[in-house]
């Protein structure tokens, strides 16, 4: 008796999902025991199941277990995308408003120098070097130059936030500075990326809004302007009015999802904003980020008519429990799955130019680190703080991989450049994690003001942070430290 096709496909998906989670958590656990960033271990777990390891030892088994096309690949891709969106969402929830002029000055200066200078270096080098061989079928000198500049300038929000979460410092002043700068840089990154993808769409029909009217096409100039403006406008509008909307929805008695399960209501809110972004033709990461910032600023009122003593405290507690529940599950399942699938994309045996990678890695690290260091020093930060910021913000991580995968899928770059960009993201993230891990283990103050910052009291002690089996504690609720 033959096994039904649906049963066979389900079993295949479950095997693939189990293999990825086992590999990600096992190697991540080993890295934690070695006092290394767990996120890098999760990526290497995916490498072990990819073409570079399992693919060489048992190519037929690797192709069956983790196919690149078909229902299993599509489902795993959707689950890993959800992991990325949830990670960015919780990054947004842990952002806090700056509490002093010196912090704002540091964020502003590091953002300006850390983005403009390396981007300019990348553009200049792209014009000087012969990069024609790195272009994909839909690429052009202009789009390749923009990708080159972005690859040097980008900083990772998801990877940096995960590293700091693993180390227990996500609530510190240092983390707030880093994430504030990284968020601003990523807004610019995705805006420029949208313009690049717009250039790659020669028919000018890439904006979903235009498909609702007329023949569904738009002039190229209108398309480019749309992609450049709408992401920023969306983020500003949602961050302005979103917290109030979320608060009213969470407290509404007519909202059955919120009444039955606060984590489910939170997840629905994230998914809806991400879906709106997709409908507008912009990256859903904007929706995930905006939803996190909305939740962090929301003030959940007591449901109308509820006069029970302690009702306000109960509402706040329920919301924090929703955050903890959703965060724990995301970090256990979806986020490791996302990073493991990143590792699957690496194939150095067939698509890797070692010479190009070496000089590109050196150029990217020197340009980015020096620019961040310069901005921090101009803002009045001490030498040690400037160096810490320079090393950490050199991590490209998730956005660097997104830049690689999206532009490769669009035919803007070739597979060799794709491999170089992914490997650049992994190595720079590893170095940043190593640096931060040693600083925390030695009990060093990452900034001059961390010792006086209220959130620092919630962080791990040096002994806790370096303990092989430690698990990170939940970051303090954002509202606890708002002025």
Question: Summarize this, please?
Answer:
Helices cover 70% and strands 0% of the residues. By secondary structure, the protein is an all-alpha fold. Mean pLDDT is 77; it is low at 303-312 and 451-483.
Q: What is the count of structural domains?
A: 1
Instruction: List low-pLDDT spans.
Output: 303-312, 451-483
Q: Helical element count?
A: 19
CATH topology: Na+/H+ antiporter like fold
Write the layout of secondary structure elements.
Elements: H1 5-33, H2 38-48, H3 54-57, H4 59-65, H5 71-93, H6 101-128, H7 141-153, H8 157-167, H9 173-200, H10 220-251, H11 256-260, H12 262-280, H13 285-297, H14 311-344, H15 354-378, H16 383-392, H17 397-409, H18 415-441, H19 462-466
Description:
This protein is an all-alpha fold and 483 residues long. The protein has a single domain, classed as Na+/H+ antiporter like fold (Up-down Bundle), CATH 1.20.1530.20. 70% of the residues lie in helices and 0% in strands. It contains 19 helices and no strands. It has helices spanning 5-33, 38-48, 54-57, 59-65, 71-93, 101-128, 141-153, 157-167, 173-200, 220-251, 256-260, 262-280, 285-297, 311-344, 354-378, 383-392, 397-409, 415-441, 462-466. Helix 5 (71-93) packs across helix 14 and helix 6 packs antiparallel against helix 7. The longest helix has 34 residues, at 311-344. The protein is globular. It starts with a helix and ends in a 17-residue tail after the last helix.
């Amino acid at each position: 008796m033959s096994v039904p096709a649906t049963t066979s496909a389900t079993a295949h998906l479950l095997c693939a999902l189990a293999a990825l989670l086992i590999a990600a958590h096992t190697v991540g656990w080993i890295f934690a025991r070695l006092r290394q960033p767990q996120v890098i271990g999760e990526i290497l777990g995916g490498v072990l199941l990819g073409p570079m390891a399992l693919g060489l030892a048992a190519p037929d088994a690797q192709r069956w277990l983790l196919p690149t096309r078909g229902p299993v690949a599509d489902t795993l891709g959707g689950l890993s995308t959800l992991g990325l969106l949830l990670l960015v969402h919780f990054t947004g929830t842990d952002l806090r408003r700056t509490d002093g002029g010196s912090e704002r000055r540091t964020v502003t200066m590091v953002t300006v120098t850390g983005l403009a200078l390396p981007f300019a270096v990348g553009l200049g080098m792209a014009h000087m070097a012969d990069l024609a061989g790195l272009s994909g079928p839909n690429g052009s000198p202009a789009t390749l130059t923009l990708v080159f500049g972005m690859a040097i300038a980008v900083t990772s929000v998801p990877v940096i936030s995960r590293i700091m979460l693993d180390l227990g410092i996500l609530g510190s002043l240092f983390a707030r500075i880093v994430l504030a700068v990284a968020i601003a840089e990523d807004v610019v990154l995705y805006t420029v990326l949208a313009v690049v993808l717009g250039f790659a769409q020669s028919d000018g029909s890439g904006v979903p809004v235009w498909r609702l009217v007329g023949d569904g096409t738009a002039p190229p100039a209108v398309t480019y302007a749309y992609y450049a403006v709408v992401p920023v406008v969306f983020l500003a509008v949602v961050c302005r009015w979103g917290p109030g909307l979320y608060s009213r929805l969470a407290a509404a008695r007519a909202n059955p999802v919120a009444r039955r399960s606060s984590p489910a209501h939170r997840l629905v809110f994230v998914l809806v904003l991400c879906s709106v972004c997709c409908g507008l033709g912009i990256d859903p990461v904007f929706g995930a980020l905006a939803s996190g910032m909305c939740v962090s600023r929301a003030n959940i009122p007591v449901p109308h008519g509820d006069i029970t003593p302690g009702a306000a405290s109960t509402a706040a507690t329920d919301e924090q429990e929703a955050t903890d529940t959703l965060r724990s599950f995301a970090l256990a399942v979806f986020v490791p799955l996302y990073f493991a699938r990143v590792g699957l994309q690496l194939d150095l045996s067939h698509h890797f130019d070692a010479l190009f990678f070496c000089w590109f890695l050196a150029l990217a690290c020197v340009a980015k680190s020096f620019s961040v260091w310069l901005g921090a020093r101009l803002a009045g930060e001490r030498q040690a703080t400037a160096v810490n910021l320079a090393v950490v913000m050199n991590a490209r991580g998730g956005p660097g991989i997104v830049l690689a995968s999206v532009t490769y899928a669009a035919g803007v770059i070739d597979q060799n450049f794709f491999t170089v960009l992914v490997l650049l993201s992994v190595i720079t993230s590893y170095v940043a994690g190593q640096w931060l891990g040693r600083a925390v283990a030695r009990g060093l103050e990452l900034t001059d003001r961390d010792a006086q910052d209220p959130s620092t009291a919630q962080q791990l002690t040096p002994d806790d942070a370096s303990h092989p089996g430690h698990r990170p504690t939940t970051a303090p609720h954002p509202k606890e430290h708002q002025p």
